[in-house]
């Protein structure tokens, strides 16, 4: 099975996602945005439903709804309508439910696209692999351009703003990265599990690193190992691949708890 073309495609696609998820996930951990990332991921299903309904790209639909939900959240947060975690809870579950309903109305059964929730990496085509690698390279390029500003904002947002950093613009750019990351990851680990792949390797890497750059590299490495372990578990134990990848990441995190945290 490991020598089959479909497995090789899955491995290449998974490694591409993992290489990007690690560095992006570091900022999600540093800025305590895990619930925010989950909300954008859930909104992606509504984008899929709109794509099916209107006949355009599902990836484009997921990115568009992710950005729309993020902008809505930023506006409501600035107006102090509700506490941020309350807003996230409302938008996260409402967008997920709306997505399931929309997909169900279009296809007659929401179950027809449940692979988008939990991933189906073993079915990726060479075209999917190309899209993932190109999208991943774009995410890393933008992240590299925003790196210093995001580091400064993660340390002290008000001080970063005082130093002339366009905080709102950088924050919007990072939100776009998460939305793009979610869209290109739909078929790999699924909309419900992408946040776990973003957060768990980064959280594990935090215990093994003493600089932001090291943490980003370690997080990417741990995410890649999680993909390999998850695919192997899928091949030899007939486990569902997306959850197996996330479970592997969780196991690696537990192992990092056994050693002292880097100073």
UniProtKB/TrEMBL annotation:
Transmembrane segments: 50-75, 87-110, 130-151, 172-203, 215-233, 240-258
Membrane topology summary: Multi-pass membrane protein
Subcellular location(s) per record: Cell membrane
InterPro entries: ABC_BtuC-like, ABC_TroCD
GO BP terms: response to zinc ion; transmembrane transport; zinc ion transport
UniProt keyword list: Cell membrane, Ion transport, Membrane, Transmembrane, Transmembrane helix, Transport, Zinc, Zinc transport
Any GO CC annotation of this UniProt entry: ATP-binding cassette (ABC) transporter complex
Entries under SUPFAM superfamilies matching the protein: ABC transporter involved in vitamin B12 uptake, BtuC (SSF81345)
Family label: Belongs to the ABC-3 integral membrane protein family.
Role of this protein: Involved in the high-affinity zinc uptake transport system.
Protein name: High-affinity zinc uptake system membrane protein ZnuB
Organism: Aestuariivirga litoralis
Classification of source organism: Bacteria, Pseudomonadati, Pseudomonadota, Alphaproteobacteria, Hyphomicrobiales
């Amino acid at each position: 099975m490991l020598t089959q073309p479909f497995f090789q495609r899955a491995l290449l696609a998974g490694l591409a996602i993992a290489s990007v998820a690690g560095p992006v996930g570091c900022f999600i951990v540093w800025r305590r945005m895990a619930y925010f990332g989950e909300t954008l991921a859930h909104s992606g299903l509504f984008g899929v439903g709109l794509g099916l309904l209107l006949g355009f790209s599902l990836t484009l639909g997921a990115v568009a709804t992710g950005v729309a939900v993020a902008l809505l959240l930023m506006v409501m947060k600035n107006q102090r309508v509700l506490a941020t975690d309350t807003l996230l809870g409302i938008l996260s579950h409402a967008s997920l439910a709306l997505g399931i309903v929309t997909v169900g109305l279009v296809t007659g059964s929401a179950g027809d696209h449940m692979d988008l929730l939990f991933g189906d990496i073993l079915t990726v085509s060479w075209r999917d692999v190309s899209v993932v690698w190109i999208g991943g390279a774009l995410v890393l390029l933008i992240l590299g351009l925003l790196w210093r500003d995001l580091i400064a904002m993660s340390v002290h947002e008000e001080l970063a703003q005082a130093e002339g950093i366009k905080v709102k613009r950088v924050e919007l750019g990072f939100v776009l990265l998460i939305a793009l990351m979610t869209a290109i990851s739909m078929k790999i680990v699924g909309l419900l599990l992408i946040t776990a792949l973003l957060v768990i390797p980064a959280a594990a890497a935090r215990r093994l690193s003493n600089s932001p750059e090291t943490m980003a590299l370690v997080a990417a490495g741990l995410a890649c190992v999680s993909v390999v372990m998850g695919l192997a578990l899928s091949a030899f134990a007939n486990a569902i691949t997306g959850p197996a990848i996330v479970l592997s990441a969780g196991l690696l995190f537990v192992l990092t708890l056994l050693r002292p945290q880097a100073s």
